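Hi team,

As requested, here is the filled-out complex form for the adenosine-5'-triphosphate run. I kept the field names the same as last time so the parser does not choke. Let me know if anything looks off before we queue the next batch.

— J.
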Amino acid sequence: MAVLEARQLVVDIPGRSAGNPFNARIQSGQRWGVLGPNGAGKTSLLHTLAGLRPPRSGEVLLDGQSLTRLKRRALAQKLAVVFQERQDSFPATVLETALIGRHPFLSPWQRESDGDVHLAQQALEKLSLSPLENRLVSTLSGGERQRVSIATALTQQPAIWLADEPTNHLDLHHQVAVMALLHEQAEQGAVVFMCLHDLNLAARWCDHILLLFPDGELCFGPADTMLVPQVLERLYDQSLSVTTVNGKPVFVPT
Ligand SMILES: Nc1ncnc2c1ncn2[C@@H]1O[C@H](COP(=O)(O)OP(=O)(O)OP(=O)(O)O)[C@@H](O)[C@H]1O
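And here is what came back:
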């Protein structure tokens, strides 16, 4: 069980007025989707919640403890970040990269155990990457690399997933597979908080939605109360048509 809490949180975006502070308890089992136009501050919020970026004001708490008091390693044992783009500076294989997810649990010169390798291999299998286990990450396609990032987070077995556009670069099949995996993680008790550009994935897979407007205004709540066409049209400055498929709204730009 885990709770990530934002208290009077204002993300520090240079040159922007404070907007609304974010106050929320993001709890085990919940799947939050953050929506907003380019530059609205989704990544900045995610990095602030991960403790990678200091807030302008307010604080973030993990299980009641301020992130500023937590050691980076203790934080990494609970919280994984899937970045929007990953820079791999060292030549490493897919398996070696997935094993980075075990590093928060190892002492500085400790080698990964067979159990760690098994966890990494299970994660690679889940992301359909087993055949690529020994390939250098630098030789992979964009979608394959994205799946390696998610497999690395899965190997970390986090209680909290902060995922920045986890379906970036993925084809339709893998988009659904990754959203199903995150859904499964939430069902097993994880917190899932992700930035998304695809309204229809958000409508189908998220139970809470946070809307971020470029001026710092924000609102959030249960997905069915947030995914209102008039509000989304204002959010994106784009007219939309909406229909319903399998009980979920489907939005089409018009
Ligand atoms: N270190 C920085 N210095 C100056 N401006 C910054 C910095 N970091 C972010 N910004 C600005 O803050 C705003 C929010 O950026 P952010 O990446 O959080 O937006 P986003 O909603 O994730 O956008 P996108 O949908 O394009 O990924 C942008 O206008 C960006 O240029």
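Two things worth flagging: The chain has a mean pLDDT of 95. The domain at 1-78+158-228 is CATH 3.40.50.300 (Rossmann fold).

Thanks,
J.
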